[in-house]
Design a protein that fits this description.
By secondary structure, the protein is an alpha/beta fold. 33% of the residues lie in helices and 24% in strands.
Length: 253
């Protein structure tokens, strides 16, 4: 099924949603699709939704009609071999061969690593949830193009993951790192950009995920409290993340 946002068609993008909508996200935003549209979309664009986690994929013959793609985060492991994950990897391989723009977020970041021959697995320092400050590489001209002006030395972003990139693909360039994760962001060529954190998340989305995981007894109360405390007096640099991701996807430089 394709869900379209009705606008005058100038550019066309697709979201590969690798997670199911929580009841909170449905009620507050109408689903994760709307969260992504509000973060990365612009007036006059067409955005299509493919719930890849449920086996919903575009036809190969339609891929060329898209200007760019986003792969979302997911509670599933990017190194797993569920049918839909294997199919998503195959699709990403085709998009890479076509040199289509693909923005990988969290799980998507790891899927692209897998497709390009890198290694992913459980995070060396354990799960990470909360607002984190990541350090931006100083010697990367590409980021100057994406930001359009001065490249920030660091950026705050919401993190929510238990896996990470353990070994980069040979063709990758690291764009950001942190004390807890060596590969926070990387690029391959001009068509793949991968981010371990969540540019689309805000405080209430993070808190709801923390509460849900806590209620499922998959984390300790102390870990949950620490995750929430990171956003008591700070916010993610959402405007700068939007600028970076939109310039990458749309060439708005």
């Amino acid at each position: 099924m394709v869900v379209e946002q009705e606008h005058k068609k100038t550019k066309r993008f697709a979201l590969f949603l690798a997670t199911r909508d929580s009841e909170f996200v449905k009620k507050a935003y109408g689903g994760y699709f709307n969260v992504f549209i509000s973060t990365f979309g612009d007036e006059g664009e067409q955005w299509d939704l493919f719930r890849v986690v449920d086996g919903d994929f575009p036809d190969d013959k339609d891929l060329d009609s898209y200007d760019g793609f986003i792969i979302s985060g997911s509670p599933h492991d990017a190194f797993a071999d569920a049918d839909w994950i294997v199919k998503l990897c195959s699709l990403c391989q085709k998009l890479d061969e076509m040199e289509k723009k693909v923005l990988g977020i969290c799980f998507g970041h790891q899927i692209i690593t897998r497709v390009k021959g890198g290694k992913i697995g459980r995070a060396r320092r354990g799960p990470d949830m909360g607002l984190r400050t990541i350090t931006i590489s100083k010697d990367t001209e590409k980021l100057g193009l994406y930001f359009g002006d001065e490249v920030p030395a660091s950026l705050a972003i919401v993190k929510c993951h238990q896996d990470e990139v353990l070994e980069l693909p040979d063709s990758a360039t690291v764009l950001a790192s942190s004390e807890v994760c060596q590969v926070e962001m990387f690029s391959i060529g001009d068509h793949l950009l991968c981010i371990q954190g969540h540019p689309e998340y805000n405080k209430e989305i993070l808190f709801e995920i923390v509460d849900r995981v806590l209620n499922m007894k998959l984390m300790e109360q102390e870990f949950a409290d620490k995750a929430k405390s990171t956003m008591e007096a700070a916010e993610p640099d959402k405007d700068l993340w939007q600028k970076l991701c939109k310039n990458f996807l749309k060439g708005q430089i």
